[in-house]
Amino acid sequence: MTPLLVNLLGTAGAALAVVLVAFVVGVVTGQHKVVDVAWGAGFAAVAITGLWLSAGHGDPANRWLVTALTVVWGLRLSVHIGLRARGTGEDPRYEEMLARAKGSRNAYAFRMIYLLQGVTLWFVSLPVQVAQYHDGPLTGWAAIGIALWLVGFAFETIGDAQLARFRADPASHGRVLDTGLWRYTRHPNYFGDACVWWGLFALACLAWPGPLTVLSPLLMTYLLVRKTGKPLLERHLARTRPGYAEYVARTSGFLPWPPRSSHSKGQ
Question: I want to staple 7 with a disulfide (CB 3.0 to 4.6 A). Which of 20, 44, 53, 199 is the partner?
Fold first, then answer.
């Protein structure tokens, strides 16, 4: 357990370093949306730090597998968000949050945006850190974990690509995307995120104390479904997209499911 405890401290330092760099960039540019780009990069930094610290303790194949899955997911997300945010203003969520600041807006932003996200990403990444110390063979749990990760990565990547094409089409202005994966779930990218982290949790369950990290994917799923993901986005779309209420009425809110007919009732 001692090497793992040292790892937990090292990865906490890596997460803090990423959010500190993002904070400096946010202060210089005056746009704190940069923290969203740092989110995925922070997970990659934690995984790479864990790979280095776990050398000589975990099975090499398992260490490299869980690291690669985390880094690929994290860097893809950071690049996607960075490209999407180019040429746009501050995220309305952060504008609203900073409007409540008393005293220094930057100090408030560091506490309530950057530091909070740094702690969250470190906690969510616990399955990755524990999995890197597994020194036994890959078993059926690994197959389950990889399958969940692949499903999640596909949903997230394809959903983001479909949304990017939709937004780039001038004819889509003011409309609601309800084709492709978006026909079956209002949030294929969020569903994909959740699957990725449940898959990484399955890899952590190859050995003790992996099962104890179950709160990490639960927290990620809660944030996506109930907190900073789906609710905030849907409130914004309900105000800005005509026809969004009808889309909500016929389309699953999270888990992919065939759309309800126009005669169906309820959510």
Answer: 53
231 and 219 inside one domain: yes
As to burial, measured by CB atoms within 10 angstroms (0-12 exposed, 13-18 middle, 19+ buried), residue 107 is exposed
List, in order, residues 6 or more apart from 48 with CB less than 8 Å away. Answer: 14, 67, 71
Evaluated on CA atoms 229, 222, 203, 126, the torsion sign reads positive
Burial of 216 (0-12, 13-18, 19+ CB in 10 A): buried
Domain end position, chosen among 79, 104, 134: 134
How far apart, in Å, are the Cα atoms of 218 and each of 8, 100, 205, 262?
Answer: 19, 29, 15, 33
Is 162 found in the same domain as 36? no
pLDDT digit string, tens, across residues 163-198: 999 988 888 887 888 899 999 999 999 999 999 999
Whole-angstrom distance, CA of residue 153 vs CA of residue 149 = 6
Number of domains within the chain: 2
| Reported pTM | 0.90
> Alpha-carbon distance 162 to 133, whole Å?
37
DSSP 207: S
Rounded Cα gap, residues 26 and 98, in angstroms: 13
Residue 211 and residue 88 in one domain? no
In a domain, 264, yes or no: no
- Tell me: do 115 and 7 sit in the same domain: yes
Task: Give Cα 259 distance to the centre of its chain.
Answer: 25
Rg (CA), the chain: 19
